[in-house]
From TrEMBL:
Lineage, broadest ranks: Eukaryota, Fungi, Fungi incertae sedis, Mucoromycota, Mucoromycotina
Coiled-coil region: none
Organism superkingdom: Eukaryota
Organism of derivation: Rhizopus stolonifer (Rhizopus nigricans)
Name listed for the protein in its UniProt record: SAP domain-containing protein
GO CC annotation: mitochondrion
GO MF annotation: an example: crossed form four-way junction DNA binding
SAP domain segment(s): 13-47
InterPro entries: Mrs1/Cce1 (IPR039197), RNaseH-like_sf (IPR012337), RNaseH_sf (IPR036397), SAP_dom (IPR003034), SAP_dom_sf (IPR036361), Ydc2_cat (IPR015242)
Amino acid sequence: MFLFKRSFSSECLKKYTVPQLKSVAILSGVASSGNKPEIIDRLSHHFTTTSTPTRSVLSFDLGYRNLAYCHLDHEANVLDWAKIDLDLPSFHPSVVAPIIREFIDQNVIKNLKTVDKVLVEQQRARTGGAHAVLENTLRVNCVEAILWCGLYEATESIQRDIQMMPIPRQSVDRAWQLELDAIVAENPARFLKIKQGYYQKKQASALLVQKWLDTNTTVQCNQEFKTIIGLVQMGKIHQRIY
């Protein structure tokens, strides 16, 4: 872990190796691809650019049966959370658009009135670099595109200039990789027959968040939200857009 002051010079970065610089970039939320000069340029811009402190962030985990969002403040308190089944009868844009708009009106716009940043999980175009594009990928990409349109429409309607950006899942995975590895190591029986890959990471991520909620570490969540999360996980309640 390296700590830099905003008054630093890019010259101080040149003494670090590429793997070290990539580690700093990942932890700083900066793209880690490219050669050493490119990474140094990105880090220099990141650490020297003056920005207004972020008070809260609204993030989206995309899906059409499991569309989730979470509103966190700067102290990592959960201000709002939900996992929504859009219950789409069709994936034609003429059907998806009004349902997404209703979702934004019911759940999202109240959060947009106070957040400083919005993060949306960026969807992939293909799985594993394959030539074929799976139907599920097309469906989620449709939801993603219309959600972005709805977010811009909503921010314009409330006359707020909010920084909104797509976040690749791989960047999030890398940021929490050590914690995810620790979860797998702590639960050997559960992961014994699960091969490394997407499904294992999904299971480990769920356990990691559950650990945060149980121990009130990393994020803080009041009992009301914990109860709702528990009921959703047990399938006793289903959040839908009506």
